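[Automated response] Your request has been received and processed.

Submitted sequence:
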Amino acid sequence: MKRCHLYLLLGMLIMLPMVTLHAQTLPCTPNEVTAGFAQAAQSGALETWAAGYGQSTCPANIKNGASAMAAAYFAMSATMIPFISPSDPSVLNPVFGWQPGGAVGNSYDLTLYPGELSLIADAGTYPSSFPMLIYPFQGNFQVAVRLDFQTDGPRYHGAGIGFRAAQDQSIGDWIVLMSHFGSGGLEIRSDFLETQNLSHVNYANSIVYLRITKHGTLFSAEYSTDGANWVTLVSNSVISLPSDVEIFLYTYSTNGEGVIARFSEFSIVAR
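Generated structure:
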């Protein structure tokens, strides 16, 4: 997406007067919105800027335009990270860490589906012996991944993306975005043992895009069928995790059969 597309979004805006929100004057004319966007992007405050318009009394087309500009900017800034090593396509990219879990049959494969990571979980790996691919990160972020996961087994086979405090082995403290329970839907939890389910939706497709945003003590989780149009599962939920975290991809089996989850299009942007 080219940067000029951001300014094409201003076609959504019309000339309107100034409004006031919590004693802060927000401009609602296209030129002023454009200037505010540029300033917020340069100072690293674009998310706050967009949230301000979302809560303002500006007309809907102004608020939607501001939100679309911010989303487009973040999408352009996202870094796609390949799973394969730049020097050897048969080797895992060294920016990732591999945690095999406690089952002998846990593994990963970079050749079954070119450009994808196939994460393989042995039978009965839930809740404590499943494999994970780990990506360390410091600070605020938005991370997204495409997942292809289909199983004929129990609905509670699972695969997805999550994050935790760096090197934290306590599964009760993890923040996890579940993707699939076989054909049982999508779920977001604030722990791994199903005691803090924050949201659940029915979802029957094998392919889903997952996205998590962490900003300070808040996180949001979304899913998409195409990677472009996102549906919110959780918005600005409070967490108590440090700045240093580990983002992880995972899959597990809940019965006597193993499972394979296919991950691709892993991207992250600092927020």
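Summary generated for your ticket: Residues 53 and 63 are 5 Å apart (CA to CA). The chain has two domains: 4-77, 97-270.
If you did not submit this request, please reply to this message.
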